[in-house]
Amino acid sequence: MAAVTLKSVKKNYGTTTVVHGVDLHIEAGEFVVILGPSGCGKSTLLRMIAGLEAITDGEISIGDKIVNELEPRERGCAMVFQNYALYPHMTVSENIGYALKVAGLAKADRMARISAVANMLGLADFLDRKPMQLSGGQRQRVAMGRAMIREPDVFLYDEPLSNLDARLRVAMRIEIRKLHQRLGTTSLFVTHDQVEAMTLADRIVVMNKGQIEQVGSPDDVYHRPASTYVAGFVGSPGLNLLSVIIDRASQQIRFKDGQAIALDSTHWPHLPEGPVTLGFRAEQAAIVSEGGLTISPHFSEALGPSRLLHGTVGAEQAVISIGGTQHYADDAPLQAEIPSNAMHFFDPVNGRRILPLP
Predict the structure, then answer these.
(1) Cα separation of 150 and 76, whole Å?
(2) Rounded CA gap, 103 and 245, in Å?
């Protein structure tokens, strides 16, 4: 395993910049997930690390080597692709061991390595089959085996689960995490799926328009989002974001529709006077009989153990999570209490987080 370091890495296509000076350090043995929507530059970043895309500017190091000018095969990386990229005319055994065959490894040694990898991935009974005779999950495990057998310094996963159905994605997430625990190889995993990011990562890198918005543990990214972008992107649903006015004279948080709730100035001593963006999680607001923030519900979603009530505060959207056995009329206003320690405040201009009292 090896550490990976990016210093001011940029990528341009003609006059269009798709990655804007990214700085990132990944420790040896760490599992890092790069999370973001389509077009944010996450796959481009991964391909530059692999050497499949040339960088426009900056520096990429793997271990103690700067790899900017090295060919992909010289970087010590193994990549698992979204579309499996298996050879259809080869058996599972031949697909897994192809890199060793090209490298000239003796057949007996090659077969021993193939057998060990196949046993680890639960493929021992499928070694003589062709890819078309396998399920999607089995094909993805073959692709992972082909990467593993090279014993790389770094695993690179480019949305490897996006072609699988929901149940299989859950199973493969578990397999990938178990695999990392066994091997301890440095891993970078690209996805647009926040559930994959939250369940797999030691750290998450949230990207937006070719830039890093936040780097942190799943807990940090979920509970302490660095910007309104991260707050809205991470979580299902994302953070409620409402425009408010901080009135320190009256110790109140005022909403656009004229409502006001109390401001805990001891928790927020440095919160600026005037307009800010208030955020809170759907599951952290409690339904009360009076004294809370009035939300006008429009519809609800039943999720089994809970329900999501979708409504508005003034003209802005808000979502509240309640127990699955609780019932509220979709057209009856409700009162929601937001604890002070569940509140997040953001600059309304640049969207960056306003930090609370430590």
Answers:
(1) 9
(2) 66
Residue 77: helix, strand or coil by DSSP? strand
Q: Return the CA Rg of the chain.
A: 24
- Listing DSSP states for 153-184 in one string gives SEEEEESTTTTS-HHHHHHHHHHHHHHHHHH-
Tokens of 89: 């005319």
Encoded tokens for 186: 């440095």
- Pair of tokens at residue 53: 């895309």
Q: What are phi and psi of 299, to 5 degrees?
A: -160, 165
Closest C-alpha among 163, 147, 171, 201 to residue 26: 201
Q: Is 122 helix (H, G, I), strand (E, B) or coil?
A: coil
- Of 293, 295, 275, 284, which is closest to residue 346 (Cα–Cα)? 275
| Structural domains present in the chain | 4-230 (3.40.50.300), 238-354 (2.40.50.140)
Cα(216)–Cα(271) distance, rounded to whole angstroms?
24
The answer to whether the beta carbons of residues 346 and 353 sit under 8 Å apart is yes
Structure tokens at 251: 């110790």
User: From CA 208, how far away is CA 35, in angstroms rounded?
Assistant: 9
pLDDT in tens, the chain (358 residues): 899 999 999 999 999 999 999 999 999 999 999 999 999 999 999 999 999 999 999 999 999 899 999 999 899 898 888 777 788 999 999 999 988 888 888 999 999 999 988 888 888 999 999 999 988 888 888 888 888 888 889 999 998 888 778 887 888 888 888 888 888 899 999 999 999 999 999 999 999 999 999 999 999 999 999 999 999 999 889 999 999 999 998 999 999 989 999 998 888 888 889 999 999 999 999 888 888 899 988 888 888 788 888 999 988 999 999 876 666 666 678 889 999 889 999 999 999 999 876 5
**62 φ, ψ (degrees, to nearest 5):** -125, 120
Q: Which H or E element spans position 335?
A: strand 334-337
- What does the DSSP assignment read for 216-251? E-HHHHHHS-SBHHHHHHSSSS--EEEEEEEETTTT
- Nearest Cα residue to 28 out of 46, 2, 61: 2
Structure tokens, 131: 């890819």
Distance CA 264, CA 246 (A): 11
